[in-house]
UniProtKB/TrEMBL annotation:
GO molecular function, one term: protein homodimerization activity
Domain V(D)J recombination-activating protein 1 DNA-binding: 1-35
All copies of domain V(D)J recombination-activating protein 1 pre-RNase H, residue ranges: 36-108
Alphabetized PANTHER family for the sequence: V(D)J RECOMBINATION-ACTIVATING PROTEIN 1, VDJ RECOMBINATION ACTIVATING PROTEIN 1 RAG1
Protein's recorded name: Recombination activating protein 1
Gene Ontology CC annotations of this record: DNA recombinase complex; endodeoxyribonuclease complex; nucleus
V(D)J recombination-activating protein 1 ZnC2 domain span: 246-308
Species annotation: Schistura notostigma (spotback loach)
Gene designation: RAG1
GO BP of this protein: adaptive immune response; B cell differentiation; chromatin organization; T cell differentiation in thymus; V(D)J recombination
Length: 324
């Protein structure tokens, strides 16, 4: 897709000297396009190349010279979103034309729905190299632009001008952060993804002003964390692992209850409630024994750090299908 885009934007074939290709590629990389946020994003670094977390000494400034101790590389979230939107510029303009909308009238009211995904990539160790010693596991955080809608007037229904046809394809899934870390390492994962969560939270309260089709337009973003598997949801929500007595990430049922009652399962807990339970787990205000305390917090054992939408998770679907 990248080379198709290179050809589309340049109109030239891609059999060219490498430096020409490199220059065309730079336009596709985050950091190339101008944009602004209204109001400005709170608590977000103003430099876009926050790319590298060096395991020893914090941030380094360069994106290209990767120190040997690097454990994570990423783009700033909003910069990556801008790059993704610019990549869809032709699709957006085409969508406006197909709906018979005058593109000069459509400068605001765009909403973009983002699916977020995060998963472990398994064993990535060097089998017989002499490179730096890094953890053998890697985790990748990525996002997909699922749809773009526009609402021209307050009372009108939103019109969909772009819908991702293959939302699970690697072509539409854009990697934002790669880290050498085991997905079970709650602390390191929190340390690396913490700033990502802060950026995402800031973007929810602001509008992106970006030039699409030669005119400035404003976009609002909605994020749906539906690309996490159950293990990652448990990790992000601070729950016990999947072998826990408490089978579900969204309600308090135990294995025994789930096997007896296939029907009456409902989503009973929120992110905020999990935070309260973590505090109970941490402070043990009633001086209970380990088993009593565990029964009280129903499997919440670490601090959750990323709110997940209370959508139906895999286990509730299984119970609904009577396969538990």
């Amino acid at each position: 897709k990248m080379y198709r885009t290179v050809k589309a934007t340049s109109g030239r074939q891609i059999f060219q000297p490498l430096h020409t290709l490199r220059n065309a590629e730079k336009e596709l990389l985050p950091g190339f396009h101008q944009f602004e946020w209204q109001p400005a994003l709170k608590n977000v670094s103003s430099s876009w190349d926050v790319g590298i977390i060096d395991g020893l000494s914090g941030w380094t400034s360069s994106v290209d010279d990767v120190p040997a101790e690097t454990i994570g590389r990423r783009f700033r979230y909003d910069v990556a979103l801008v790059s993704a939107l610019k990549d869809l510029e032709e699709d957006i303009m085409e969508g406006l034309r197909e709906r018979g909308l005058d593109d000069s009238a459509c400068t605001s009211g765009f909403t973009v729905v983002i699916k977020e995904s995060c998963d472990g990539m398994g064993d990535v160790s060097e089998k017989h190299g002499s490179g730096p010693a890094v953890p053998e596991k890697a985790v990748r955080f990525s996002f997909t632009i699922m749809s773009i809608n526009i609402r021209l007037d307050e009372e009108e229904d939103a019109v969909t001008i772009f819908q991702e046809q293959k939302p699970n394809s690697e072509l539409s899934c854009r990697p934002m952060c790669l880290m050498f870390v085991d997905e079970s390492d709650h602390e390191t994962l929190t340390g690396i993804l913490g700033p990502v969560v802060a950026e995402r939270k800031a973007m929810l309260e602001s509008r992106l002003i970006l030039t699409i089709g030669g005119m400035q337009r404003s976009f609002r973003f909605f994020f749906r964390g539906t690309g996490y598997d159950e293990k990652m949801v448990r990790e992000l929500e601070g729950l016990e692992a999947s072998g826990s007595t408490y089978v579900c990430t969204l309600c308090d049922s135990t294995r025994a209850e789930a096997s007896e009652n296939m029907v009456l399962h409902s989503i009973t807990r929120s992110h905020g409630e999990n935070l309260e339970r973590y505090e109970i787990w941490r402070t043990n205000p009633f001086s209970e024994s380990a088993d009593e305390l565990r029964d009280r917090v129903k499997g919440v054992s670490a601090k959750p750090f990323m709110e997940t939408q209370p959508t139906l998770d895999a286990l509730h679907c299984d119970i609904g299908n009577a396969t538990e």
